[in-house]
Design goal:
The chain is an alpha/beta fold. It has helices at about 20-30, 45-60, 75-79, and strands spanning about 5-10, 35, 65-70.
């Protein structure tokens, strides 16, 4: 088991933005957790392409930490 603190990856659903998950992020951060979310182009790309888009962006901050995924609707599929 990794001794690194996990990163909560939080993704919005179809037609939304990361603004829609800000309250979840705010609560998790108030509890001392690290969070990450991104607005991905849910209407412009396929689910597979959105997953690749999110993965490439997540790679920039991942740093080998354990990940905990939280996704609303399409966000759960993209995860």
């Amino acid at each position: 088991m990794s001794s690194k603190k996990p990163l909560f990856v939080i993704l919005h659903g179809l037609c939304n933005t990361s603004w829609h998950v800000r309250q979840i992020e705010k609560k998790l951060r108030s509890l001392g957790h690290s969070t990450w979310s991104i607005t991905y182009p849910s209407l412009k790309l396929s689910i597979e392409d959105n997953a690749n888009y999110v993965s490439k962006e997540l790679d920039k901050v991942y740093c080998g930490r354990p990940l905990i995924g939280i996704g609303h609707s399409m966000g759960g599929i993209v995860l």
